[in-house]
Amino acid sequence: MQYPNNIKKCFTKLSVSHSNRGMNLENALNSSNNYYLKKDYALIYKKPTPIGVVDVSYNNHKKIIEKAYFKEQSTLDYNGLYRGKYIEFDAKETLNKTSFPLSNIQEHQTNQIRNVIKHGGIVFLIIRMNNINYLLTGEDYISYIDTTNRKSISYKYIQEKAHIIKESYQPQLDYLKVVDKVYFEGE
Amino acid sequence: MQYPNNIKKCFTKLSVSHSNRGMNLENALNSSNNYYLKKDYALIYKKPTPIGVVDVSYNNHKKIIEKAYFKEQSTLDYNGLYRGKYIEFDAKETLNKTSFPLSNIQEHQTNQIRNVIKHGGIVFLIIRMNNINYLLTGEDYISYIDTTNRKSISYKYIQEKAHIIKESYQPQLDYLKVVDKVYFEGE
Fold first, then answer.
1. May I ask the CATH architecture of the domain A21-183?
2. Residue spans per domain, chain B
3. pTM
């Protein structure tokens, strides 16, 4: 069967949609960060994805990108300032029900997590799994991968160690409430 | 006189070159940040410039940007973590010899400076003027604009309040030495 080109384009988009799995989680986090910003609770932003520009043109002295490709972020995707502290984190989503595949986290991201811990910042992963959002501290993540050779984190470990982030209307994901409990309790 | 197209393109590039005035300063800062990173002194990065994507194509499931434009950064350009503290700054360059035009700093950047101060972070401007690199603290910048209606900062104020950043081979601009003195003295 022959499909028209615009339909074919749709198939291509669908076939790469797994790379957009984090989209809903990302939207929820962006909306939560906007809420925190408006309420003056925290200054936390998603970093723009870096690009490599191949070709540009100029229209009325305005630079237009005519060809470019996405590059890899050197850091985690989100960073900012909360209660005088540096915060950095990344958001990961898996459809897997029994374990979180470590292939979701690249080596330079693991290095960045180690570095932020070493320099005294707050660093964590937000993991959406089985429709629940968890905050796993950088320390618990590093302690896991340093003591195992497994290629995934069992769901049991996440349930035991990670902290559930409540969903609500606003902010959609109130992860700073977990940060308060985990990093600021007693202050 | 008619010029060939490739020469015309050159003219267009030259005519917008004032927007690239900060390029050398930016390169010096990127190289200094790489040095700090390699030496494990600090984790400080320039944020990628955000873009608005108009059109994409797919090549072997890899997304190619076919048209896009540059958007404005919501924050200052550089941020990161140093000695357990959140740091954010921007770099500005002027060819003006007697005063630094405030038109170089946009309103949302001034707001961001106020916000970082309020939330307990370290924030400053690196200003290159008369071939000297100065670090002007966010506090001194805000105190200036809140007490004057002038459209520029006089060079005299910069000489009095700002701190000279020494240039060397590596790091090219050792601005963290100034940060040590201004923000960590006595620790």
1. 3-Layer(aba) Sandwich (3.40)
2. 20-47+59-184
3. 0.86
